[in-house]
C-alpha cells in the first residue's frame, strides 16, 4: 500500500509525459496516496557553463518549469486533481535528484518513463536504470509505445 507516489517527468515529450502522469495518478488513486510530480533541471551553477547565463536565469527556469508541471497536470488530470498534487522542481543530476525528492517526500513508489532504447542504453534509458538500481522504494517504469 502506497502513501506517496512520485512521478518523474522530463517535460520534453508531452505524449510520453501524459502517459507517465496518467499511470502515476492511477496508481496513487488505488491507495488514495499523495501524488507528487518532479522535474529536474541541469545544474550549471558549478561549471564554466554558468558564466553564459544571467544570475536570475536559474530562478526563472524554476518558475517556468513549475508552471509547466502545473499546466500539464491540470490538462491531463483536471484542475481539481491538480490542486492536491505537489509540484517539485529540483536542480542537479536527474536520477540523484529524483531519488532525493522521493526520500524527502517519503515516497513508496516512483513512476518514471523510459525511452525506446538505443543500442547503448540496452533496455532502459540511463536515468530510469539508475533510479531503479539505487532506489529504496519500488519503481514502476512506463514504456513508450
Explain what this protein looks like in three dimensions.
- With 145 residues, this protein is α/β, with parallel strands linked by helices.
- The protein has a single domain (4-143), classed as HUPs (Rossmann fold, 3-Layer(aba) Sandwich).
- It has helices at residues 14-30, 57-77, 79-82, 94-105, 126-134, and strands at 4-8, 34-41, 86-91, 109-114, 138-143.
- It has a five-stranded parallel sheet with strand order 3-2-1-4-5, sandwiched between helices.
- The longest helix is centred in the middle third of the chain and has 21 residues, at 57-77.
- Residues 119-123 have low confidence and may be disordered.
Quote the beta fraction.
15-25%
* Secondary-structure element string: EHEHHEHEHE
CATH superfamily: HUPs
Query: Which class of secondary structure composition applies to the elements?
Result: alpha/beta
Distance between the amino and carboxyl termini: 28 Å
Q: Based on CA inertia axes, which overall geometry fits? A: globular
Largest sheet: 5 strands, parallel
- The residue fraction in helices comes out at 40-55%
Please state the second-level CATH architecture. Answer: 3-Layer(aba) Sandwich
Short précis:
The protein has helices at 14-30, 57-77, 79-82, 94-105, 126-134; strands at 4-8, 34-41, 86-91, 109-114, 138-143.
Layout: helices, strands, pairs:
Elements: E1 4-8, H1 14-30, E2 34-41, H2 57-77, H3 79-82, E3 86-91, H4 94-105, E4 109-114, H5 126-134, E5 138-143
Parallel strand pairs: 1-2, 1-4, 2-3, 4-5
Amino acid at each position: 500500500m502506497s502513501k506517496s507516489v512520485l512521478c518523474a517527468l522530463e517535460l520534453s515529450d508531452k505524449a510520453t509525459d501524459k502517459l507517465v502522469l496518467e499511470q502515476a495518478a492511477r496508481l496513487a488513486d488505488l491507495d488514495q496516496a499523495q501524488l507528487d510530480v518532479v522535474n529536474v533541471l541541469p545544474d550549471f551553477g558549478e561549471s564554466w557553463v554558468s558564466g553564459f547565463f544571467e544570475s536570475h536565469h536559474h530562478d526563472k527556469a524554476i518558475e517556468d518549469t513549475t508552471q509547466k508541471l502545473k499546466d500539464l497536470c491540470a490538462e491531463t488530470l483536471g484542475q481539481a486533481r491538480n490542486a492536491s498534487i505537489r509540484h517539485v522542481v529540483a536542480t542537479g543530476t536527474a536520477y540523484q535528484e529524483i531519488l532525493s525528492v522521493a526520500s524527502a517526500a517519503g515516497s513508496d513508489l516512483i513512476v518514471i518513463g523510459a525511452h525506446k532504447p538505443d543500442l547503448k542504453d540496452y533496455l532502459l534509458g540511463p536515468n530510469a536504470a539508475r533510479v531503479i538500481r539505487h532506489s529504496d522504494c519500488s519503481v514502476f517504469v512506463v514504456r513508450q509505445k
